[in-house]
Write a structure and sequence with these properties.
There is one protein chain. The protein is an alpha/beta fold. The protein is about 45% helix and about 10% strand. The chain is built from 18 helices and 10 strands. Strands 1-2-3-5-7-10 form a 6-stranded mixed β-sheet, sandwiched between helices. The chain has a 4-stranded mixed β-sheet with strand order 4-6-8-9. The longest helix has 16 residues, at about 40-55. The model is unreliable at about 1-10 and about 395-410 (pLDDT under 50). Hydrolyzes 3-hydroxyisobutyryl-CoA (HIBYL-CoA), a saline catabolite. Has high activity toward isobutyryl-CoA. Could be an isobutyryl-CoA dehydrogenase that functions in valine catabolism. Pathway: Amino-acid degradation; L-valine degradation. It catalyses: 3-hydroxy-2-methylpropanoyl-CoA + H2O = 3-hydroxy-2-methylpropanoate + CoA + H(+).
Length: about 400
């Protein structure tokens, strides 16, 4: 595997190497399946910025050390910060900023994706010019399992997939494997895992940023494929998905899907339905609305919207489901979250509206589509950075009984 080129005994969570005219970035948390912590986010942003500005670098490769590309965001980080308002605000802000710059990167990016590529991890792979997966790659956006929503640009990306596949993947968290990821349009090429090391070596020796030359090299290692008869991407299953997941509400989607489950040859639907019915009703409703809105929004609008949604979920604006989901699935591992509200009918539109409500303009995610300002939308330049750092300074000089940071953050 290509990941073996990097010495895994190094302690850096992100390793950047410049080999000739090629930059190689490796997410280096193999024991944690390369989950994305606040430090990973910060370093990825810094190293991508440096390589893009370096005239000698013509091509950038991103990969994960060990057996996974990235299993997604570091959920324990969020859970540990649950008692402090906005404890993960910086990581959230920087992650959305990072996703925007990957989408708009000025040099060819190649992702070498072996193993798990899920949630926030998949958001690093999907928008790249060249996303190479193997037969062992597993893709999913599993956020509804923990009462969250597909974020990091996925309301933009999922909404642009064929038919209603985006709604299906976003709501169910269904997994796609290897060739399915390419067939769905979420990756560009599939290469046998045993050839990934050789492919990387050829890309390094290419020493070029010419996209035609890069694609030509990747195609030399790529394989043709056919979709398995049991894949959800088969025409007969996609026609059902397109029909059912085009309904206006989650309730209508479930009713329509359940009606199809009783028809001959549709045995595959029942386990999907069973799974949907144990997910957070709040998370499902937020997810459907976000993807639907994404169909009519630009990338920037989607990221700004998702930033609002994520922060309102982290702040428990209408529900504690996110932390309940992490507790049940990741911390205690009893797989029995106690959602509140417990039913779809109890989740009112007025509540969901609060999650999507615009922030004051200066508190929105600050990303710019103007080339000269692309690298200036950082957290460091945001009002959040200023206020929270001021609060920390106040907290150091005032008595411990003074609320300090809590008061200033509540004003945000």
């Amino acid at each position: 595997m290509a990941q073996e080129i990097v010495k895994l005994d190094r302690e850096d969570v992100v390793i950047a190497e410049e080999i000739g005219r090629v930059g190689v970035i490796t997410i280096n948390r193999p024991k944690q399946l390369n989950v994305i912590s606040d430090k990973v986010i910060l370093l990825l942003g810094e190293k991508l910025e440096k390589l893009e500005k370096d005239d000698s670098t013509k091509l950038v490769i991103i990969k994960g050390a060990g057996k996974a590309f990235s299993a997604g965001g570091d959920l324990k980080m969020f859970y540990d910060g649950r008692k402090t308002r906005d404890s993960c605000l910086e990581a959230t802000y920087r992650m959305y900023w990072l996703c925007y710059h990957i989408h708009t990167y000025k040099k060819p990016l190649v992702a070498l994706v072996h193993g798990m590529s899920m949630g926030g991890g998949a958001s690093l792979m999907t928008p790249m010019k060249f996303s190479v997966v193997t037969e062992k790659t597993v893709f999913s956006t599993p956020e509804t399992l923990i009462g969250f929503h597909p974020d990091c640009g996925f309301s933009y990306m999922l909404s642009r997939l064929s038919g209603r596949l985006g709604e299906y993947l976003g709501l169910t968290g269904a997994r796609l494997k290897g060739k399915e990821v390419v067939a769905a349009g979420l990756a560009t090429h599939i290469v046998p895992s045993q050839k990934l090391v050789e492919l990387e070596k050829c890309l390094l020796s290419l020493n070029s940023g010419d996209e035609n030359a890069i694609e030509s090299v990747i195609k030399e290692f790529s394989t043709d494929f056919e979709i398995h008869e049991n894949s959800i991407l088969q025409l007969n299953r996609m026609s059902i998905i397109n029909e059912c997941f085009s309904k206006d509400t989650v309730e209508e989607i479930l009713m329509s899907f359940e009606a199809e489950a009783h028809k001959l040859g549709n045995d595959w639907i029942q386990p999907v339905l069973k799974h949907l019915k144990i997910l957070s009703p709040t998370g499902l409703k937020i997810t459907l609305r976000s993807i639907r809105e994404g169909r009519k929004q630009t990338l920037s609008e989607c990221l700004k919207k998702e930033f609002r949604i994520s922060n309102n979920i982290l702040r428990r604006t209408i529900s504690n489901d996110f932390y309940e989901g992490i507790s049940a699935i990741v911390i205690n591992k009893n797989n029995s979250p106690k959602w509140c509200p417990t039913t779809l009918e109890e989740v009112k539109d007025e509540q969901v509206n609060l999650i999507f409500k615009n922030f004051e303009q200066h508190l929105e995610l600050q990303i710019s589509e103007k080339n000269e300002h692309r690298w200036k939308g950082k957290y460091d330049n945001s009002p959040y950075y200023y206020h929270i750092n001021q609060a920390m300074k106040i907290q150091k000089v005032l008595p411990s009984t003074t609320p300090g940071i809590g008061l200033i953050q509540s004003a945000l």
